[in-house]
Amino acid sequence: SFFKVKNWAKQCTTLINAPSLNKRPKQVKTIAFYHNHYPIGGIERCISYLMPLFQSLGYRVILITDKDASTDAYPIPPGVKRIIFGEENTILGNPLPKKAFSTRCELWDKCIRDNSIDAVYYAFTVSSVRLLDFLSIRSAGAYVIYHFHQCFTMSLQHQSMNFFFDFAYLLRFVDTVIGLSRVDERFFRLCQTRAYYFPNKCFFEELPQPHAESVSSRMNCLWCARIALQKQPLEITKRRVPSFRINMPTSPIPISTKPMD
């Protein structure tokens, strides 16, 4: 609803300069990683690498999630404290009920102050409550580091043009944004935001060596990512080879593919 306010750009500039949003610790000692959940996935894998890395650099590390721990999750490094807000306080892809806004703000404030958190590494790219969370974190006196795990043009593909421009204003409420490409980094800097390019870790040495035959001559493909719209699984079907086959392993739980029908 913030983005539907008239003269949003002017309101944003006024809000970002509020003294209560500009209190920062002089030194960062404790870093909290936030994601809605912590199952086995791409973003979660990045977090699983970064938590022990920051520990080795001498930082105290905390993991914050909305959902409880699941069996299909990456292990949490020893010494990392986990804080669970509760799934009722956020809904993936849907707006929060109005009565839950104040509760969520209070959760962030108490969490940051009680655990002396200096910076929050916000890795939940598609959160529907990002603006609320950014305001809550900054009001509590902590830095906001936003790791955007998508191409910045995704909003142009699946959402409106207005949302794309509103996103530029949203970035002004973070202290640092991390992108996955140099192009993203340059776009984020145009939004008056400190931005960095941070490539995901790859293990090319673990990949099997390619065969002598041409890749284009192969007729079978194994899709290893989630079957989700933003992963663009149907792009691979555009190959004009009649006998080309895509194998998509799924969990026993039925997965809705209605948006891609």
Describe what this molecule looks like in 3D.
The chain has helices at 8-16, 42-56, 98-114, 130-139, 154-158, 161-170, 182-190, and strands spanning 30-34, 60-65, 81-84, 119-122, 143-147, 176-179, 194-197, 220-222, 245-247. With 261 residues, the chain is α/β, with parallel strands linked by helices. The two termini are 30 Å apart. The longest helix is centred in the middle third of the chain and has 17 residues, at 98-114. Helix 7 (182-190) links the parallel strand 6 and strand 7. Helix 3 runs parallel beside helix 4. The relative contact order is 0.11. A 7-stranded parallel sheet has the order 3-2-1-4-5-6-7, sandwiched between helices. It is built from 7 helices and 9 strands.
**Spatial extent as radius of gyration:** 20 Å
The number of E-state strands comes to 9
> Please, how many helices?
7
- In the predicted model, the low-confidence regions spanning at least 5 consecutive residues are 253-261
General shape: globular
Output the structural class: alpha/beta
- Helices and strands, in order, run as HEHEEHEHEHHEHEEE
pLDDT averaged over residues = 77
Give the end-to-end Cα distance, rounded to a whole number of Å: 30 Å
Strand order of the largest sheet: 3-2-1-4-5-6-7
Largest β sheet strand count, sense and barrel closure: 7 strands, parallel
Helix content: 25-40%
Strand content: 5-15%
